[in-house]
Amino acid sequence: MKVNNRLKWFSIGLLTTWLVIFVLFPNLMVIAVSFMTPDLRELIRPEFSVEGYLRLLDPLYLDVLIHSLYLAGFATLLCLLVGYPAAWIIAHTSKRMQAFLLFLIIVPFWTNSLIRTYAMKVILGNRGIVNKTLMEIGLIDSPIRMLYNESAVIMALVYILLPFMILPLYSSIEKLPRNYLEAAKDLGSGPLRTFRTIVWPLTLPGVISGCLLVFLPALGMFYIADLLGGAGNLLIGNIIRDQILVTRNWPFGAALSVTLIAMMAVMLWAYHRALKAMQGGQGR
Amino acid sequence: MTTDSRSAVIRLCAVDKAYDTKTILNQFDLDIQDGEFVTLLGPSGCGKTTVLRIIAGLETLDAGSIALAGIDITQLPAELRNVNTVFQSYALFPHMTVFDNIAFGLRTKKVAKAEISKRVNEVLAMVQLAGFEHRKPADLSGGQQQRVAIARAVINKPKVLLLDESLSALDYKLRKQMQNELKRLQRQLGITFVFVTHDQEEALSMSDRIVVMNDGEVQQQGSPREIYETPANLFVARFIGESNIFDATVEQALQGNEYRARIEGCSFVIHSDSALAPGDRVHVLLRPEDLRLKEINNGGDENGLVGTVLERNYKGMTLDSVIELDSGKQLQISEFFDEDDPDFDHSLGQRVAITWVPSWEVVLPYEG
How far apart are CA B191 and CA B189, in angstroms? Predict the structure, then answer.
């Protein structure tokens, strides 16, 4: 018992130390920096200022921010529309089939997402596989411009982030006891009503965590906007990177990061509330 | 066994059902009369739950037909059938309050709000849960959840209420209480109840009629008394209650339905309504409480099967003993205490002679 206890405290201590040094501390630093004043020589001056946050409201940046939220939001919506049926189908196949299909969902993770983004460039470019094929069959005379616009960014975000939507959805759909569906049917409820009143509320935690895992990373994936987006389709990630590395306005970059963290906090709170509404996910 | 004066509310006709390649039901027929409390009783895997799910519409048929109140509903989906189910694990919707759970069926039928709340309150009072309407299922005890599940089903005024092992999750005392409540509810509502269980005691105490199933086939159907006192075959005899089963050979036909037969080397008179010829082999079934026991003292001679007391268990109401016959066969015997004899008991190893009340034996066809 004693040895066991010591091991327990050691593991917990190690984990806590790790999180404090590499998660809590950097985040506190980001928050601190966001309230400081930019300095050309020293990067930051320890003088209190809310300038960083005020700049968020500058129309120039506000437009970019809103457009970025729109890109990520639209990608999240598409992921949900594609991911929910996919997760539903996977969860309703045999156990062996489920393992195989989930494996297929996870396979793309084996390749770095940056490389996969380049691959999209090769496939969708003016002289890419799709355009070449279409021209060779004679369906089109000149290549369709599929890159460097809004839809290219959204498509790439969906492509890269879809598994993050499917996996939490799958896990909450799979946990949904079948006899709830049978009970609803037995009580005279058709498929649509059953989905609206039983399935959706009970899988809402999965929906929220899926959206969380897609929406927030989507805002930060600057390399997708860089490679596929052209000039007008920036993500918040691009601005943060530019502020930190190029323009050297650290407080503003930090304020943007804090905004992202705050958005995540709100979504986590919604997730928690959805779970609580189900009575702590009481199963069976 | 059942009168046709009442109409069959459920009629299953030549139903086939298989899962993958495993046959569950083969040419299965069953009639359920209007207003009766029927129990489908059998060991697990005998197909009783499948029958229930077929009635509910949760399973499709491979062949055959099912009619509800004379109308063919074979192709009718579950949501359109006027039949409701109380599921084994209740399947209460965890995110809804008791009120919303119970109102669910009425809301699908677009019943007016005022009417819904009136009927929910009525049914809550009926299952003695008034005041619980704003609780969530997780805040209720097992027995209360069970009542909500029943309320959620009966509020729709179904023609038939299906109960799938609905009491098996409750502890002994609560189960007894719910058995009585279900009986009361059934009388009060006049709805046909189809109850599935593997608990023979539960089946005997609750049902108007028991359908004993094994391997997807009906072994016997009848009142609890018929099933217990005149089982149709060895399976039913063994499945329901304790029983002592002897192999017997008919020696001679006596007058009427009486025959002389040899059981364990002794000659007895047995009663059978089927025609038997000398040399026929039969099974003779005797319940432990039908046997009579007499102690043999001082090397006296007694009629009956002779053996020794192997075990005796005080059961409060009865004294249950195990007797080993000289042939090695063991018998269960259960005697009621004799009020005139407070020292009524047997010592282990006591020689005894066993007989039974004439004509209380059940003679069954030989099954090998």
Answer: 5
In a domain, A16, yes or no: no
Residue A38 lies in a domain: no
What's the CATH code of the domain at A237?
1.10.3720.10
Q: CA-CA-CA-CA torsion for A267, A269, A274, A277, nearest 10 degrees?
A: -170
List of chain A residues whose C-beta atoms are within 8 Å of the C-beta of residue B78: 182, 185-186
Residues of A within 8 A of B160 (CB-CB) are none
B118: enclosing H helix or E strand: helix B113-126
Task: Look at chain A and report how many structural domains it folds into.
Answer: 1
Question: Which contacts qualify for A255-262: CB closer than 8 Å, 24 or more apart?
Answer: A255/A34, A255/A52, A255/A53, A255/A55, A255/A56, A256/A52, A256/A56, A257/A30, A257/A34, A258/A30, A258/A31, A258/A34, A259/A56, A260/A216, A260/A219, A260/A220, A260/A236, A261/A27, A261/A30
pLDDT digits (tens, 9 = 90+) for B202-247: 899 899 999 999 999 999 999 999 999 889 999 999 899 888 999 9
Task: Identify the burial level of B109 via C-beta atoms within 10 angstroms of its C-beta, where 0-12 means exposed, 13-18 middle and 19 or more buried.
Answer: exposed
Of A185, A193, A279, the CB nearest to B78: A185
Give the pLDDT confidence of A40-94 residue by residue, as tens digits. Answer: 788 888 888 888 899 888 998 889 889 999 999 999 999 999 999 999 999 999 9
Do residues B37 and B31 make contact, with C-beta atoms less than 8 angstroms apart? no
Round to whole Å and give the CA distance between A145 and A137. 18
Q: Show the CA angle centred on residue B96, arms to residues B160 and B138, nearest 5°.
A: 95
Q: Is B76 on the interface with A (CB under 8 A)?
A: no
Whole-number Å distance between alpha carbons of B214 and B217: 5
Q: 3-class DSSP state for residue B31?
A: strand
Is residue A4 in some structural domain? no
Burial label, A66 (beta-carbon count in 10 A; 0-12, 13-18, 19+): exposed
Cβ contacts from A onto B, under 8 A: 75
Q: What is the pLDDT of residues A106-153, one digit of tens each?
A: 998 888 989 999 988 888 888 888 888 888 888 888 888 888 888 899
In whole angstroms, give the CA distance from residue B189 to residue B211.
22
CB-CB under 8 Å, B136 with A185: no
What is the residue range of A277's domain? 53-283
Classify residue A47: in a domain, yes or no.
no
Q: Nearest CA to B178 among B189, B167, B191?
A: B167
Would the CA dihedral through B19, B22, B27, B31 be positive or negative? Answer: negative
Pick B79's closest partner by Cβ from A179, A189, A282: A189
